[in-house]
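Please fill in the sequence for the structure shown.

STRUCTURE ENCODING:
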């Protein structure tokens, strides 16, 4: 069954609550003070099912207060509405909160509604007709224009017009777009309470996705993981709640005192709390001039916080104008691109404008003109272009898949579809969890090629540069370095041999005397066994100059023919392999060995014994236990 959220809007005492009660049979005034004073103070909720032109429709009603002192409560309920019953009393016609609620509905772009002229039985026909004409003029050109939306006169006392209103409500609800249950789950919290025997319960409108009993979800901005112990939709227990339904969620893992209206339940890892939002905002006609760095009240779904408005162009924004801006909030908020918000003046409190969130993770240190251009591109972009822009602006740092979800608010399936298109068009490189701008990655890869070429030109006797040294020279993130290196290997411009990188097709070329000297140096160390000479003595007999001889030693070390244990001690790999075999063979007679026994076994002095024993520890042949070693 299709689920639609219907909200009320209008001035105090214009009959919103009585209208909902007449339609549903439910009194939405639940607080004692509301019943005593006869006014709605906080949000009230009701529900009903009805038959529409396209089948059964389940309606969830959110009744909002009309008093100017409780507009903040009204704003906590209006964000999830699919359809509004805009109420104007025939006794009073259009009043201040009529205008403010109307402005709020338009700023939030509520898609459809019905204008309801209440208390029509309390005025004469002439007044009734005059109020209707005023209302038609008031809503002209808006989503409530009578050319596209119904205007119904009703009396809850006599029942006049209620049947027609039900018909129009059924038609409008059938035309309403079904919220996306396949999108990521989000539920802004509008009530928090405790039920005996159940524990902590929160309620809200499930604005997207679906929620199941036993799901693990996240409370934002707390970033607390909780479990769904139980679910109710319109007062009935259920295993599954879908987008567009009023939902009560029984939570395990969090106390009532830790939660409050304005928090959001969301799919784990979907959103990151932020204090900076790049937005497009608009001021209402007649609003006071908004100066740069003004403080305002930001209303985003059920949340409210103070914010500073940093305009990206100019020092002022005038009534009726729109601008790019950054909102810097006093407390963290959790939202996604495309979410709409309301701005109210800090003092005296009044609605002045609103807008849409464009970027939830704005780049730092970006100049205002570039930031405005980025927001313009993001606003106009489709999915493929948007992900390409988000990746490209990260330049040499790249964007991880989890961060891409945070910055888009998309489900993984939608993100993967956009990425597939961006990869196919050559805009984005995707490796593991890393997303890189393809053009930037190619520039980085070319830089690595140049670095390898410079190294090999400066070190003709080196077979190449080690990956670690190349990484350190590049100052890149390891994952980006690996992706760039892999792309050059695929392009056959670089060759990676173990831990060494060299230009593809470039081989080490040595002169005859260098070949002979290399053989001679290796032979010296091979013959020495564990009693190796000092490096300077080993190089004394070669025919080439000392600098080239040192490079030949470096080459032998890179090839792992020689192994350096300290600045003074270099051994042939065969001697060390033989040592490992000899020590392991000793385990059959005694599993422990000390320095004295090691010296006796190998015939070396303490100068050699200590570095060799430490080498065996590193190779996991032995393990130190006090002054002894245990052969493992």
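FILLED IN BY: designer on duty
SEQUENCE:
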């Amino acid at each position: 069954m299709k689920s639609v959220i219907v909200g009320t809007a209008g001035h105090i005492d214009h009959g919103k609550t009585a209208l909902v009660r007449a339609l549903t049979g439910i009194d939405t005034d639940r607080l004692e003070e509301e019943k005593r004073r006869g006014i709605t103070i906080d949000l009230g909720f009701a529900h009903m099912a009805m038959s529409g032109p396209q089948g059964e429709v389940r309606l969830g009603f959110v009744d909002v207060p009309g008093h100017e002192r409780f507009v903040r409560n009204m704003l906590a309920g209006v964000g999830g509405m699919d359809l509004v019953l805009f109420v104007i009393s025939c006794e009073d016609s259009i009043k201040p909160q009529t205008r403010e609620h109307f402005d709020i509905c338009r700023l939030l772009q509520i898609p459809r509604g019905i204008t309801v002229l209440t208390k029509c039985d309390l005025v004469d026909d002439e007044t009734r007709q005059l109020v209707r004409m005023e209302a038609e003029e008031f809503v002209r050109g808006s989503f409530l224009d009578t050319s596209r939306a119904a205007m119904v006169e009703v009396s809850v006392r006599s029942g006049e017009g209620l049947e027609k209103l039900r018909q129009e409500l059924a038609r409008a609800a059938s035309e309403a777009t079904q919220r996306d249950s396949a999108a990521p789950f989000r539920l802004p919290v509008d009530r928090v309470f405790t039920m005996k025997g159940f524990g902590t319960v929160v309620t809200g409108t499930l604005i997207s996705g679906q929620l199941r009993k036993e799901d693990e979800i996240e409370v934002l901005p707390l970033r607390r993981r909780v479990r769904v112990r139980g679910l109710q939709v319109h007062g009935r227990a259920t295993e599954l709640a879908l987008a567009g339904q009023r939902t009560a969620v029984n939570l395990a893992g969090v106390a009532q005192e830790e939660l409050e209206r304005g928090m959001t339940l969301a799919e784990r890892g979907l959103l990151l709390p932020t204090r900076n939002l790049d937005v497009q905002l608009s001021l209402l006609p007649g609003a006071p001039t908004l100066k740069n760095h003004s403080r305002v009240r930001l209303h985003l779904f059920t949340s409210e916080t103070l914010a500073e408005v940093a305009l990206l162009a100019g020092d002022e924004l005038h009534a009726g104008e729109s601008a790019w801006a950054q909102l810097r909030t006093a407390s963290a908020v959790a939202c996604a691109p495309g979410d709409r918000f309301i701005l109210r003046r800090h003092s005296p409190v009044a609605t002045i404008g609103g807008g849409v969130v464009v970027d939830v993770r704005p780049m730092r240190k970006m100049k205002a003109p570039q930031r405005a251009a980025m927001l313009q591109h993001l606003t106009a972009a489709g999915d493929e272009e948007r992900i390409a822009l988000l990746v490209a602006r990260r330049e040499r740092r790249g964007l991880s898949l989890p961060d891409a979800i945070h910055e888009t608010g998309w489900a993984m399936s939608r993100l993967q579809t956009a990425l597939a298109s961006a990869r196919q068009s050559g805009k984005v490189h995707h490796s593991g969890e890393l997303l890189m701008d393809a053009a930037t990655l190619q520039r980085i890869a070319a830089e690595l090629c140049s670095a390898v070429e410079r190294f090999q030109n400066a070190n003709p006797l080196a077979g190449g540069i080690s990956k670690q040294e190349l990484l350190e020279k590049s100052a890149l993130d390891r994952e980006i370095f690996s992706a760039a290196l892999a792309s050059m290997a695929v392009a056959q411009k670089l060759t990676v041999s173990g831990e060494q990188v060299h230009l593809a097709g470039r081989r080490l070329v040595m002169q005859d005397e260098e070949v002979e000297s290399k053989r001679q140096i290796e032979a010296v160390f091979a013959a020495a066994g564990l009693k190796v000479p000092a490096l300077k003595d080993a190089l004394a007999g070669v025919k080439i100059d000392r600098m080239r001889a040192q490079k030949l030693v470096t080459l032998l070390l890179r090839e792992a023919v020689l192994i350096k244990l300290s600045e003074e001690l270099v051994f042939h790999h065969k001697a060390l392999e033989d040592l490992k075999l000899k020590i392991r063979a000793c385990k059959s007679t005694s599993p422990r060995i000390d320095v004295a026994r090691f010296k006796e076994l190998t015939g070396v002095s303490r100068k050699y014994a200590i570095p060799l024993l430490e080498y065996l520890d590193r190779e996991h042949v032995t393990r130190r236990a006090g002054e002894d070693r245990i052969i493992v």
